[in-house]
Each structure stands twice: as C-alpha cells, then as structure tokens.
Amino acid sequence: MQPLFDITGLNVCVTGASSGLGRQAASLLAGAGARVVGLARRGEELESWRENTPGDTASLIADLSDRKILRDVARDAAKPFGDIHILINAAGINTRQKADDVTDEGWDVTLNLNLAAPFFLAQAMAVGMKHHGWGRIINFASLQSRRAFPGGISYGASKGGVEQMTRAMAEAWSGDGITANALAPGFFRTELTGPVFADPVLAQRNADQTCIGRNGEPSDLDGPLMFFCSKASDYVTGQTLFVDGGFTAK
Q: Which family does it belong to (predicted)?
C-alpha cells in the first residue's frame, strides 16, 4: 500500500522557485522524491536553487507575467521529466500601490502574474494530468483573498480571484482526477513581505494578531503542502487552507 504522503517519482512544476515560499516548496518536494522543475524569472537565483537541491531537479527561466508565452512554458516544463503531475503556483508580485496611485502597468503585471499565469499554466498542464487520470493543482492565495490591507487593492483583487478560480478549477477538472486547492499563508518572512518585516513594530503587531503568537516560518507550510500534493487529500478539492497561525480566526 502506498503511504498517504508519498510523492516519489511524480513530476512537479513549481513557479516562483527562485526565492521565498516557492523555493521552499520546490526544495521540499525534491527532497521527498519528486522530480521538480523550478520555474522563475531570475536565472541566477534559480540556478542556485537547482545546484543546491539534492534530487532530480531542472530549472526553467521565464517571465510569467507575459501571457503570450504561458502555453510554451507549460510545454517546456514537461521536457525534463515528462507530463507534469503536480503544479504549484507560488510565483507572485505585490506592487503595494495605494488605490489612488494604481497604474495600468502595475495592475496588469499583478493580475497577469498572480491570476492569469496560474490559470493558463494549469489549463495547459491539465491535458497531461487528464491523460494520467490524476493531478494536483495547488495555488497560492493570501490573507488578502479575504482581508483588505493598505496599498493592496490590485494584489487583493488578484488573490480574491485566486480563491474563486481554485473553486472553479475544482468544478472543471476534479471529475478527471485532478484536484485543485489553495494555500493562503499568513505573514511569512520572504522577499515579497520584506517591507512588512523591515518594520519591527509592524511585524510584531501582525504576530500579535495570530492565535499562536508568532509570524510564520517557511517550514510551517511543509505539512499542508505535502497533504495537498499527495493521495492523503484525494477527497479534498476546491478548498483554501489558511496557514496563518490563526490570524483569520480572530
């Protein structure tokens, strides 16, 4: 009998693998025996991840905010190991523009990277998943999927969309053996949240708003991610799991 959390030999694509939670996810899954294609825009950082991660890994450089290339990216992601079984959509951007200052460019890059890229990559990779009768799509939502924060109107719009898109993906593809779920991290110290943690008072205020009393560490996502990637979650789809230390519970 296959262990519940075994992902040995499965092919995984992780976007945003060059840093932050995407890099943590890519390293975790490679260490668990999956064959991982790390996908990101910054080649030097991505190659550093590949060189320092044991296991079967490959890297693919692409700017996912360019919607015209997404189908080609999905095709290229399957070249190193074969059809992708698990897609982790971790890449993201937060321009932190106030509502009165949002620009066309800032809006477009945010919605393209945070919302359009996860969908069109999933749409393309779902073809192979359907062929195998099994697949996993794990999107990254956010506290801002449900909460409004200053300077977060375009980011919040994109992440609110991710939560609904995840439900719609589940409705569309779960009958083909493909589950779609989302992780919604709380405040984790990453490159994306650098401005938040640069202010110790603000960082502590966020920690104090959790039930647990601290901000998140990247490894806090390991268990939930393995659950969604493995057969342990066979009957779970269309769900968003908030990994936030109880921030949204208060």
A: Belongs to the short-chain dehydrogenases/reductases (SDR) family.
Write down the catalytic residue from 49, 81, 140, 155: 155
CA-only gyration radius of the chain, Å: 17
Q: Which residue has the higher pLDDT, 226 or 191?
A: 226
Q: How confident is the model at residue 62 (pLDDT cuts 50, 70, 90)?
A: very high
Q: Is the pLDDT of residue 1 over 70?
A: no
Kindly tell me if the per-residue pLDDT of 5 is higher than 70. Answer: yes
Whole domain around residue 177: which residue ranges? 11-249
105: domain CATH number?
3.40.50.720
Number of domains in the chain: 1
Sign of CA dihedral 177, 35, 5, 52: negative
- Between CA 176 and CA 134 the distance in angstroms is 7
Token duo for residue 123: 């749409």
| 155 catalytically annotated | yes
- Token look-up 């990101």 returns 40
